[in-house]
Amino acid sequence: MQLDVLKEDGFKLQLHVKKTRVGLMNALRRTMLSELESYAIDRVDFYENNSAMFNEYLANRIGLVPLTWEESVADDAEVTFSMNAEGPCMVYSRDMRSNDEKIRVFNENIPIIKLAADQRLRFEGFAIKGKGKQHAKFQSVLASYSLVPLKRSVKELAEVDKSDSKGIPEEFREDEYIFFVESYNNVRAADHLKRALTLLQAKLDALEAVKELK
After folding, report:
1. pLDDT single digits (tens) 37-67
2. CA nearest neighbour of 158 among 13, 1, 24
3. With the C-alpha atoms ordered 133, 135, 140, 143, is the resulting torsion angle positive or negative?
4. I need a surface site. Which of 31, 144, 159, 180 has the fewest CB within 10 A?
5. 205: burial class by Cβ within 10 Å (0-12, 13-18, 19+)?
6. pTM for the full model?
7. Structural contact between residues 105 and 117, judged by C-beta atoms closer than 8 angstroms
8. Closest to 37 (Cα-Cα) out of 167, 157, 178, 132
9. Residue 88, preceding peptide bond in cis (omega within 30° of 0)
10. Mind listing the domains of the chain with CATH numbers?
11. d(CA 134, CA 63)
């Protein structure tokens, strides 16, 4: 497999991948979506909520707030996020306070709920480490790939807006792809890719070992 960077801005990465097969491309995509570890709020204890939303609805929204990632945090660590808000106000993700500076809210401008006068929201959320295959809230990256048309240059594809496609049937190159990665947290897209490639290589090595045993 040969990887050439077409575009990179830190949290987005576009690659030209050559000398590989669609099965390996899909395996890499699935590894990034389902196997990379991240932190997400898994449980919420509400102490006060007289807003217009049920606890269950708010807990689901709170769990989807992206959190930062730090390798050094213990696998079984449980990070507490606290909230104490009183209306009238708009409650944002940045209002959740973490008890561990390493694991905190990444996107601070996500609206959670608008509180009217005399409405209060007080809770504690508990974040744990998990994988995307357990729940979508643990997905920390978007990954996708596309085929490379036979009669179009890779540079042209890197610049084109997909919404401009006219749906004209095309022939595609057999062993070339455009691979796109976007990070949802503080980890750079290229680093997410390296983590996924390491995991995928370990799985392939394990599979090869099983084949040798047979």
Report:
1. 999 999 999 999 999 999 999 999 999 999 9
2. 13
3. positive
4. 159
5. exposed
6. 0.83
7. no
8. 132
9. yes
10. 2-35+141-154+177-213 (3.30.1360.10), 38-137 (2.170.120.12)
11. 13
